What we know:
Elements: E1 4-5, H1 10-31, H2 43-48, E2 53-54
Antiparallel strand pairs: 1-2
Amino acid sequence: MIAELQIADEKTAAMVLRLQRRAYTIEAQIIGSTALPPLHDTIASLQRCGERFFG
């Protein structure tokens, strides 16, 4: 079942951030750039971004 993740929860935000960094690190390697903004996110910036996360 897919449901909206509660990004305000610190533990959930940390898990999303960890997954995001793994995914964008691979993308950065493919395109040869580490300037991708998601690689510089923090738990706090994810919680403030206003986006909805599903998992």
